[in-house]
Design brief:
The structure is a single chain. The protein is of the alpha+beta class. The chain is built from 13 helices and 7 strands. It folds into 2 domains: 214 residues; 182 residues, Alpha-Beta Plaits (2-Layer Sandwich). It has a 5-stranded mixed beta sheet, sandwiched between helices. α12 links the parallel β6 and β7. About 7% of the residues have low confidence.
Length: 411
């Protein structure tokens, strides 16, 4: 059974047009401008192939030369779509550069040099395919095992264009016309597969990007922009694993804004939210970029530092002092902003829960000592049960102390 070349190109045209409309639809639905770029490229490519199929038998080679330039613009649009998808601005010179090179080639080469023209045209497409593959694979190079189609599909397209030219140069054949027709048929089939394969790659990337965005949103506190408890725990687990391989100790801090309830009662919850956001900014500015910090609930924050406990105490006091001296006012009334901080350190490989429980014990000691201070654990935590027991004993002593104070006041 023989395949008609015109029929193959007609099928390619319809598929490209359908995919272009689909990409436009999803681009508007999801508000992703890169999908609109890809949709425009598919629609322009479909129009170009349709015009070539219809007009070539009538006007001959002139139509092929002219529409080839439009096809190179389409290739430039696909590359620019990959750029826009990764947050880059469109390259307008790059969009038209291939068409300009083709126009210069047609103007400078005689009709007898058709093979050289074909080589230049295929090379232009191959270059755009390589640029597209490079751009699509540039976002997360560590996950290349899952993203191999982003490289293979565009490079395969460029290879199909260049392979017959290379073979023709290496092994000239007296049946060049037959070989040329076979290659045109192969290209028509590959064009259909390339169109479908590229859309598969596009939606794979969009899906991965959407999942990443949702996962990131689920790990962040919407008010302060810091990691929430879940995100903080996951990030800390990765840090502890990394530090244990290097044999380095880690230290944890727990922050509790002093008398935060009274701030809400006196100035309202909007003012309290501003205090929380201000404290989050101070923590981020006072710690190193390698340190982790997050809001673990209410007015409580936590941090994990890859350093010994003495360095962590210095960093904690830096946060305390900066927050105390921030000078925030609400309705021209100054707001007293102080924070109590508990610090705990542990050897490489210590469990996060053990470290936080020890820091929590130190935090309650800071509150009992008068607040607005940094207290570090005197000894390293040994086990989670022991740390929890000490924390419970500290809370019990605090409750008893408050009860005694109230009894003395009544007496």
């Amino acid at each position: 059974m023989s395949l008609d070349i015109s029929t193959l190109f007609l099928v390619a045209t319809l598929i490209c047009a359908l995919l272009g409309v689909m990409l436009h639809y999803f681009g508007r639905q999801e508000k992703i401008s890169a999908l609109n770029w890809w949709g425009n490229a598919y629609l322009l490519g479909a129009i170009t192939v349709a015009l070539w199929t219809v007009l070539r038998p009538v006007f001959g080679e002139a139509v092929t030369l002219g529409l080839a330039g439009v096809g190179f613009i389409t290739c430039g649009m696909v590359w620019n779509a990959a750029r826009v998808f990764h947050g880059l601005k469109p390259s307008w010179p790059g969009l038209f550069l291939g068409a300009l090179v083709w126009a210069a080639t047609v103007a400078s080469l005689s009709p007898e040099q058709e093979a050289l023209r074909m080589t230049v045209g295929a090379a232009i497409v191959a270059v755009y395919a390589a640029l597209t593959a490079s751009q699509l694979s540039a976002e997360r190079r560590k996950s290349m095992q899952r993203r191999w189609p982003t490289i293979v599909v565009p490079l395969l397209h460029g290879t199909v264009l260049m392979l017959p030219i290379v073979l023709a140069d290496l092994w000239p054949s007296p049946h060049s016309g037959l070989v040329g027709n076979a290659w045109v048929m192969l290209f028509a089939v590959e064009l259909v597969l390339y169109a479908i394969g590229t859309v598969f790659v596009i939606f794979m990337l969009v899906t991965e990007r959407t999942v990443t965005i949702h996962k990131t949103a689920a790990s962040l506190d919407p008010l302060t922009g810091m990691l929430n408890r879940r995100g903080f725990s996951e990030a800390c687990a990765r840090m502890i694993d990394r530090e244990v391989n290097a044999g380095r100790p880690v230290s944890a801090m727990i922050f509790d804004i002093d008398h935060f309830k009274s701030i809400n009662d006196r100035f309202g919850h909007p003012a309290g939210d501003e205090v929380l956001k201000l404290f989050a900014t101070i923590v981020a500015a006072s710690l190193r970029i390698s340190d982790l910090s997050g809001r673990i609930g209410g007015e409580e924050f936590a941090a994990l530092l890859p350093c010994p406990i003495d360095e962590a105490v210095t960093a904690a006091d830096r946060v305390r002092e900066a927050f105390q001296n921030c000078g925030i006012e609400v309705d021209d009334a100054p707001v007293a902003t102080t924070v109590s901080i508990g610090v705990a350190g542990g050897p490489a490989g210590i469990e996060l829960d053990v470290l936080l429980a020890a820091a929590d014990t130190a935090l309650y000691q800071a509150k009992r000592g008068g607040r607005n201070r940094v207290v570090a654990t005197a000894e390293q935590p040994v086990s989670l049960e022991e740390s929890r027991r000490k924390a419970a004993q500290t809370r019990e002593h605090q409750v008893v102390a408050r009860g005694n104070s109230v009894g003395q006041a009544v007496a």
